[in-house]
């Protein structure tokens, strides 16, 4: 059973998502909140009761505490840490990119079809992280191009820990390719690609593919339009 918490300042959005998700046999909506501060309190209460959510759908712009700060607090606090899907209207505001840097696992468009919402929750809950790689890659590329000084770049020696092949795999991940596509591109077995990806994540301390994309852009390994 996938435990989900919904965070959005619009009650109708929360109720709509809760009804849709709650009707699924493999999803349990364990809590809702109308702002980031309430989300932290709700999450703490759920964790104490042994019902911590696996996935949090997090709105970006909310009163009291916005989705960025709430995401950062959730993922830097005491475990268990949920996977966070940022709810966005596709307007590329600053919060979206910064939420990925804070550790969010990807984006979910508020007007996405119901089937996409359900798929997103299941994919992220399974640990596959980055949702709709091509969409997320385009969002990040556009944002970095428009705001190159958005954040300080990591130290150059971070990527020095990677082998040449691992850096190549990381670049392809950042371009939005799946493991299957990377395997075909490099003429490798898919299991070999999975091993490379795992080693990249371990060496760089990355949670998932979303963070890998961000790091690749911020270090200049890949650039917008490449």
Q: Describe it for me?
A:
This protein is of the alpha/beta class and 226 residues long. The protein has helices spanning 11-22, 36-48, 67-76, 94-101, 114-125, 133-146, 157-160, 164-174, 179-186, 190-204, 209-218; strands at 2-7, 27-33, 55-59, 83-88, 106-109. Strand 3 (55-59), helix 3 (67-76) and strand 4 (83-88) form a beta-alpha-beta unit. The longest helix is centred in the last third of the chain and has 15 residues, at 190-204. The mean pLDDT is 83.
Write the layout of secondary structure elements.
Blueprint: E1 2-7, H1 11-22, E2 27-33, H2 36-48, E3 55-59, H3 67-76, E4 83-88, H4 94-101, E5 106-109, H5 114-125, H6 133-146, H7 157-160, H8 164-174, H9 179-186, H10 190-204, H11 209-218
Parallel strand pairs: 1-2, 1-3, 3-4, 4-5
Key descriptive features of the protein:
226 residues, alpha/beta, five-stranded parallel beta sheet, 11 helices, 5 strands, globular
Residue runs with pLDDT of under 50 for 5 or more positions = none
Task: Give the amount of beta strand, in percent.
Answer: 5-15%
How many DSSP H or I helices? Answer: 11
Q: Compute the gyration radius: what is it?
A: 17 Å
**Largest sheet properties:** 5 strands, parallel
Query: What's the pLDDT, averaged over the residues?
Result: 83
The helix/strand order is: EHEHEHEHEHHHHHHH
Overall body shape: globular
Number of strands: 5
User: Distance between the terminal alpha carbons, to the nearest Å?
Assistant: 40 Å
Structural class: alpha/beta
Main-sheet strand order equals 2-1-3-4-5
Helix content: 40-55%
């Amino acid at each position: 059973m996938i435990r989900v918490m919904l965070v959005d300042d619009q009650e109708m959005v929360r109720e709509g998502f809760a009804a849709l998700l709650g009707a699924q046999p493999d999803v349990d909506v364990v809590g809702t909140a109308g702002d980031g501060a309430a989300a932290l309190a709700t999450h703490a209460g759920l964790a104490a009761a042994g019902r911590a959510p696996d996935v949090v759908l997090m709105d970006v712009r909310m009163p009291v505490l916005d989705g960025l700060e709430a995401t950062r607090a959730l993922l830097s606090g005491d475990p268990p840490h949920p996977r966070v899907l940022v709810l966005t209207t596709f307007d590329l505001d600053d919060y979206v990119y910064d939420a990925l840097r804070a550790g969010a696992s990807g984006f979910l468009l508020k007007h996405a079809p119901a089937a996409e919402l359900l798929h997103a929750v299941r994919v992220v809950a399974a640990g596959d992280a980055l949702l709709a790689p091509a969409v997320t890659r385009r969002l990040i590329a556009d944002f970095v191009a428009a705001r190159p000084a958005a954040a300080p770049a990591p130290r150059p020696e971070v990527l020095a820990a990677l082998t040449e092949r691992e850096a190549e795999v990381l670049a392809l991940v950042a371009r939005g390719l799946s493991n299957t596509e990377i395997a075909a591109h490099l003429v490798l077995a898919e299991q070999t690609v999975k091993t490379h990806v795992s080693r990249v994540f371990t060496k760089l301390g990355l949670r998932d593919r979303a963070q890998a994309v961000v790091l690749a852009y911020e270090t200049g390994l890949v650039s917008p339009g490449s």
